[in-house]
Model the fold of this input.
Amino acid sequence: MNEMAIVCVDDELSILKSLEIELLETFEDRYIYEFAETADEALEIIDELEAEGTKIFIIVSDWLMPGIKGDEFLIRVHSKYPQIIKVLLTGQADKKSLEKVIKEANVYRCLTKPWNHEELVSTIENAQINTN
Done:
């Protein structure tokens, strides 16, 4: 059985830590969890996981990050790995950027910060159902 991974990307370490705590408390060891503070770091992690045969089924990414913003990052991921489900987690994306990333990266869902725990969990659970 291939292991499945969740990749979270946010330039704020406190956000990543909060996501880590919530994911581990909810899903325990059901998934592999990877966390990146930049889109470049996340792209490296994704390539490494894919190369070793770990299936990334969902990416949760911030929008406003230094360097590569979340929309551009998710579009890049989609062009290389279209099967990965992509979720945008943001409180600052403008309508035009949201429309672009939803269309060009096939974004599954946009969650706003601060996120609701139940909404995050149901997004991940529903995303997994959609990958099977």
